[in-house]
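Database export, one record per block. Field names are fixed; values are copied verbatim from the stored entry.
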Amino acid sequence: MTSLTFLPALDNPHLLAEPVAAALRTLDPATAARIEVAEVDPALADTAAFCAAYGQSLDISANCIVVQGTRGAETRTAACLALATTRLDVNGVVRKLLDARKATFAPMDAAVSATGMEYGGITPLGIPADWRLLVDARVAVLPRAVVGAGIRGAKLFLPGEVLASLPGAEVIEGLAKPSE
């Protein structure tokens, strides 16, 4: 098992995508101080590989999934945060929240381009201001959650309540369902 070294995220911008570092700088200093970053092997950034290699539980790993909902010519985008042990309810809850006829995962190139983050490292900190941030209630109550850092070579560790307090965050019961 590989070990992790936890560092204050604000003091280590080299381990963050620029939009993530910029978002951290706008947070209340006491809130930002609760966020740690750890360098990881980029080849192990995918959730299952990361958890296995670094001894972390899927129960605290939250994935940030970019979803687009369309109604007519209008497209609405949301970053959805759900535990790795759950499945995002894209065609039910997310579609309704986006007031869309159809909701789908955003194309990888579009998500990467819009966020300025790397695929596999997209995180709710630093998403575009016009996107909704939907946080599954299970994530919001975690004492310690792990999410991407905007790059594949690092992970953020922070309380779920910090994720739930991010600008524009909406905590949603049942945003995701337990995986079967």
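Remark 1: The chain has a mean pLDDT of 95.
Remark 2: The longest strand covers residues 62-71.
End of record.
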